[in-house]
Amino acid sequence: MSEPAIFFSEVNERQGMFHRRAFLMGGLAATGLLALGGRLAQLQLVEARRYQKLSAGNQFNYRLTPPPRGAIYDRNGVVLASNRPNFRLLVTKDTGFDASATLDELALLVPIDPARRGRLLKDLAHAPKKAPVAVMEDMTWEEFSRVNIRAPELPGVTADMGEVRVYPFGGAFAHVIGYVAKVSDRDLDKAKDDPTQDQALLHHPGFRIGKLGVEKAFDGPLRGHAGANKAEVDAQGRTVRLDPEGDIPAKPGADIRLTLDADIQNRALEVMGDESGAIVVMDCRNGDLLAMASAPSFDANRFVKGLSGPEYRALAEYERKPLLDKVMTGTYPPGSTFKPTVAMAALTAGVDPTERVLCTGGWAFGGRVWHCHKKGGHGVQDMHAAIKNSCDVYFYQMALRIGPDPIAAAAKAFGYGGTFDIGIPGQKKGLVGSRDWKKTAFKRDPVWHPGDSVPYGIGQGYINVNALQLAVMTARLANGKKALNPRLVKSVGGVEQPHGDAVPDLPFSQAHLEIVRAGMAAVANDPTGGAFKQSQLGLGDVKMAGKTGTAQVRQYAAGASRSNQGIAWRLKDHNLFIAFAPYDDPRYALSVIIEHGGQFGSSAAAPRAREVMRVALLKDPEIRARIERPTPLPDAPDEGEGDVGAADALGIEGEG
């Protein structure tokens, strides 16, 4: 029997295969260990901070805090818009959140009526995850305490203290300052693609944006920049404790100071009473607007909380339109307040101011009789008397003689037919008729007819203005040199805004301006003037110059009564008045429009202008000192002149 043979070649081959596999496995293991070590080194050395932040992010949560909105002040530092504390109840939707059950629990702690409950369910359904929804604002301290005690038992419920906008004067500044309100879906859609907008802030329930006036125009500077509160949370995201040291402070918005004067503005709205219209007061020296009152107004504080549907409809459907800003948006025929402008146009066109026109109460032209407001007429009138008496016949003929273009040029130089950069939107240009304008506006009848000029001369027809334009015109006329622009915003964040007197000169002769101003002075100070009784300020030698106006809103049939008694409010005439004072050193100009007042400018608008002007003058230290200055004693006659001595002239009894 033969012995088994051993083949060493096979052994060597197996051993070599084993070694190769061992080296391969060892290499793979070494590579894996090296990669693992490198990755551990990267995690522990290179990316340690990143993962520390991620870990802290799981442990801590930052809750966005809206910045305090900048305050708005008047020219003297009186607060017109500020912020006040607001106790809020917030609910945050999260995984497994039962909105209906949560609201049932909250209804045991705070009042939630069925209508509000329905709105809240809709808001919670549409709200993004972890975006808080405001269930209630302006909670009492008792309600706030009850919710905070039960908050740990109510998932997603928090009660905190935020800020809400407040307007101390309610409706006095509502149209010019505006108001803030919740961010609407339309606002979110508009801001969605805007990289400058803070999307998280826009979704915060306590955040409000400007919706009108200064609040809207300067929403960016007023907003500021959001901050955050640091809080430690558990695995479910519930707050365990606050960490005030890690808070990121919010940057408050910039404060804005306006040129308005709270006392003058409040007095303007007060004297309007139940009437509809506007009052504007402007500084004749630098263009600062001291009052921009539109009546009737509305309480801006109601809009901050949000109006119900019936409340908003009541405001929107009221015929006197409290939501309409009648200072800038409402336009009206200026009536006889346009006559100083027509007079300036006539003087510039070469009309002799001493030329006389006979007014018999009517003037026949174009197959009809154009009536004067005074039955029987004013008699013979030159320009001074025509302005003083507001003679329609005189200005009918002057307008017909010079045509529309010189009148339009003077009107535009005084500020009609355009808008002013006062920082807030909403101005309407109105209308200043001319031959070129009619070519564009009336394709079927592009020719300016002589009959178009006749009513144009008394502020009717193709002419519409707003109260701001009337005040600018009066201020420019009173200044006599500068084509002043109005200024509303005095400073933003402490940075002074441009003044309104950095403008070119008026294109009028000083002699012509003085003729027109003298006529306006006679309106208010001549006993036969159109508004003498209603224009007496009772402030010593400080006098006012003015011009009345009555603007028709309906056509009168030939021979029909022009009485406004017993007709619908919307068909009554408008009443207007423009004025500046003191006449000998103009400082303040104003315009008053009483919409559908149904009286005359002298009876409806002038008394209101007088009361507002008195406040403006009495607040001026220099004018007040002038008023309070003692009247100088009469000069004593020289010795030997006459038989009465100085003591007798003063009514002082002698000694013996």
Automatic annotation (TrEMBL):
Domain called Penicillin-binding protein transpeptidase: residue spans: 277-613
Signal peptide region: none
InterPro entries (UniProt xref): Beta-lactam/transpept, Beta-lactam/transpept-like, PBP_dimer, PBP_dimer_sf, PCN-bd_Tpept, Penicillin-binding_protein_2, TAT_signal
Region (Disordered): 624-656
Highest taxon, organism lineage: Bacteria
SUPFAM superfamilies attached to this UniProt entry: beta-lactamase/transpeptidase-like, Penicillin binding protein dimerisation domain
Gene3D superfamilies: DD-peptidase/beta-lactamase superfamily (3.40.710.10), Penicillin-binding protein 2a (Domain 2) (3.90.1310.10)
Membrane topology summary: Single-pass membrane protein
Domain Penicillin-binding protein dimerisation intervals: 65-241
The keyword Cell inner membrane belongs to this UniProt entry's keyword annotation: yes
Name this polypeptide is given: Penicillin-binding protein 2
Organism: Caulobacter rhizosphaerae
Taxonomic lineage: Bacteria, Pseudomonadati, Pseudomonadota, Alphaproteobacteria, Caulobacterales
